[in-house]
Specification:
By secondary structure, this protein is α/β, with parallel strands linked by helices. It contains six helices and four strands, in the order βααβααβαβα. The chain has one domain (3-124): Rossmann fold. The chain has a four-stranded parallel beta sheet with strand order 3-2-1-4, with helices on both faces. The longest helix is centred in the first third of the chain and has 17 residues, at 34-50. It starts with 13 loop residues before the first strand and ends in a 5-residue tail after the last helix.
């Protein structure tokens, strides 16, 4: 088996990418409890903050979908939310997102997105990152 899939996560070599945790997009989620989803991503972000894991925040269509969760934005005051300019579900299609992840120099990507079937899955399938 490929070692990339069996390695333990190391906070010193990880980057966290949070995709599209935006208010109006959350309203469309019906597959799970919205409060549970919010609490889970808040806990993940808090862990990254405590462990000093570089974190990249992305949003899409803020005028329609709302801003990124303010509770998370407040955790990372020196981190700008990257408003993706390239419409689509793969966050890495936007060079700003891909470059932000690469600039961290970290080898382990922890990835989560509000919509698993779209933004999360298609970004996770990206080979270039």
């Amino acid at each position: 088996m490929d070692d990339r899939f069996t390695q333990t996560l190391d906070a010193n070599d990880s980057v966290l990418l949070l995709i599209d945790y935006q208010a109006k997009m959350l309203y469309g989620v019906e597959s799970s409890d919205r409060t549970l989803i919010q609490n889970n991503v808040l806990a993940l972000a808090k862990g990254a903050q405590i462990l000093n894991v570089p974190t990249v925040l992305t949003s899409i269509g803020e005028k329609v979908n709302g801003q990124f969760m303010p509770e998370i934005v407040e955790m990372f005051p020196d981190t700008l939310v990257i408003a993706r300019k390239v419409p689509g579900f793969d966050a890495f299609d936007d060079e700003d997102v891909l470059n932000a992840v690469k600039r961290t120099g970290k080898k382990q990507l922890v990835l989560t997105g509000l919509w698993t079937s779209m933004c999360f899955a298609l970004t996770a399938l990206e080979e270039e990152a």
